[in-house]
Amino acid sequence: MANVLTTLRLLLVLPFAVSMARGACADAAIAGALLIAAIVTDLLDGMVARRRGTATAAGGAFDHAADFLFVVGGLAGAAYRGAFPWIFPVLVTAAFLQYVIDSYWIDRRRALRPSRLGRYNGILYFAPLGGDILVRLGAGPLRPVVTAVVWLLVASTALSMLERLRASWSAREELPRRSPQEEQADGRVEQDEEVVLDESERRHLRRPLGKEQDPQHDRH
């Protein structure tokens, strides 16, 4: 059931992007209805999965992907119309790709690795979409507020990407390393082995050739 709700949200991506790209008041009303439907399905699919005990890493990834496509589709539509700067949907796309690559390929995890700032950003991305719809429906004075929110989210998205990059780098730096004492101990062992081998070779060379036992002689 949870995946059905997520699929419904996924089916809203294209009509939402188109309605956000058009400037007519009727298109704004359609975009508002689609945005509400997406938010409702987003809230319900997680609740259903938890109550039925069907929450999985794959289901979580599907949910995040549907959210990303819905949001970035709406942001791209608004940017096409000139309401948002193009850097906004581009940065959101880059942040999501980093999220996936960092979790599955760099950290080798079986589930997406969330971050607090990234989570907040994901929730707040719906705010400028709703604000733009209200402006198109007649709430013109909200336009400066929506623009300020957009640029704040641009900055926070870039910051979350830097934070994730720093966290990944720190994790690699904290991998278990051999201490200097262990390296010195290994070096002493290798030196002792070389001394033993050298001593064995010298003893072998000092053995008189005439005293080597003849296998045939040992039988008598």
In sequence order, what are the helices and strands, one letter per element? HHHHHHHHHH
Question: What is the 3D shape?
Answer: globular
Number of strands: 0
CATH topology: Four Helix Bundle (Hemerythrin (Met), subunit A)
- The figure for the number of domains is 1
Could you tell me how far the N terminus lies from the C terminus, measured between alpha carbons in angstroms? 89 Å
Structural class: mainly alpha
Instruction: Write down the overall mean pLDDT.
Output: 82
Determine the fraction of residues in helical runs and give it as a percent range. over 70%
The CATH class name reads Mainly Alpha
Q: Spans with pLDDT under 50 lasting ≥5 residues? A: 192-197, 209-220
Instruction: Please identify, by name, the CATH architecture.
Output: Up-down Bundle
Q: What characterizes the major β-sheet?
A: none
Radius of gyration: 32 Å
Strand content: under 5%
Q: List the total number of helices.
A: 10
Which labels suit this protein?
Four Helix Bundle (Hemerythrin (Met), subunit A), disordered C terminus, mainly alpha, 220 residues, 10 helices
